Amino acid sequence: MKRLLLASPRGYCAGVERAVETVERALTHYGRPVYVRKQIVHNSHVVEDLRSRGAVFVDALVDVPEGATVVFSAHGIAPAVRREAGELRLTTIDATCPLVTKVHAQARRYAGAGYALVLIGHAGHEEVEGTLGEAPDAIVLVQSAEDAEQVALPAGRPLAYLTQTTLSVDETGEIVAVLRRRFPHIEGPAREDICYATSNRQWAVKELLREIDLLLVVGSPNSSNSQRLVEVARAEGTPAHLVDDLRDIDEKWLDGCETVGLTSGASAPERLVTEVCSWFTARGAEVREQKPVHEDVSFKLPVELRRAERAAA
């Protein structure tokens, strides 16, 4: 193994940066503890770091003391969760990624106009659960092209589809093609719901594949966009593995490899990539990066937090 080739862009997206900073700033403003419903982002290292600084992660709002502050994760919540927080008299900060919020708004708009909706996504993912909760009687979940071939949609109603933001661009395109063939009048979002960061990271991996023998993706197992990066490589015939950090690397994977590619999911801190690079450098590999791609996207912090900070100033 001679070289390690780094993908660009990789790592944190604007929604993850916003969510992590929200918890950090909430800890500074409110003090310990600050409660977080579910994992703020799907990365074990981020969660453990915030936990060590005073964040308390809970699966259910009933586990949050009355009157305490709770942050909603980047993946979004169903309206029922928001109502429950009000009933429990919790101070809430909504760190839902604005690109997920956009999908929720589309679901409400379509359902309110009488549409039957298809949501393309993965069952059980928190983002999907939140979107389904916006219009549970109007939405059916489709996970694959096979599902799309079999899904039954009501006759006589307008139809539309939405997607989870962290899907495979290629696989989603196949599902949409099936839906459009079966339901020629189905409508879709004016712009793809798959977020810019997910698309860009998949594009960067495809650019790497011509030069590498193996791809490593730094990300946690429950990170949808990280899993999709592995799938993109494998779909093109390149072996690929998801690693939470350098401890997950099996040196047997490197047998016969001259060039290894490295990328990271949108919720993986860059320090984890740096540690993997050091691991390869110590074994004599040259580390190079693709031509750097700058993502000029940023989101304001949640309005609840900004108001609280202004009031205290």
Name the features.
Rossmann fold; Cobalt-precorrin-4 Transmethylase, domain 1; four-stranded parallel β-sheet; 40% helix
In short:
This protein is 40% helix and 17% strand. With 313 residues, it is α/β, with parallel strands linked by helices. It is flat, with a radius of gyration of 21 Å.
Outline the structure in words.
- The chain is α/β, with parallel strands linked by helices and 313 residues long.
- The chain folds into 3 domains: 3-12 and 196-289, 4-hydroxy-3-methylbut-2-enyl diphosphate reductase, catalytic domain (Cobalt-precorrin-4 Transmethylase, domain 1), CATH 3.40.1010.20; 14-96 and 299-312, Rossmann fold, CATH 3.40.50.11270; 99-182, Cobalt-precorrin-4 Transmethylase, domain 1, CATH 3.40.1010.20.
- The protein contains 11 helices and 12 strands.
- It has helices spanning 14-30, 44-52, 79-87, 98-112, 126-132, 145-150, 169-182, 196-208, 224-235, 270-281, 303-312; strands at 3-6, 34-37, 55-58, 69-72, 91-94, 116-120, 139-142, 159-163, 214-218, 240-243, 259-264, 286-289.
- Strands 10-9-11-1-12 form a 5-stranded parallel beta sheet, with helices on both faces. The chain has a 4-stranded parallel beta sheet with strand order 3-2-4-5. Strands 7-6-8 form a 3-stranded parallel beta sheet, with helices on both faces.
- Strand 6 (116-120), helix 5 and strand 7 form a beta-alpha-beta unit.
- Helix 4 (98-112) runs parallel beside helix 5 (126-132) and helix 8 (196-208) packs parallel to helix 9.
- The relative contact order is 0.18.
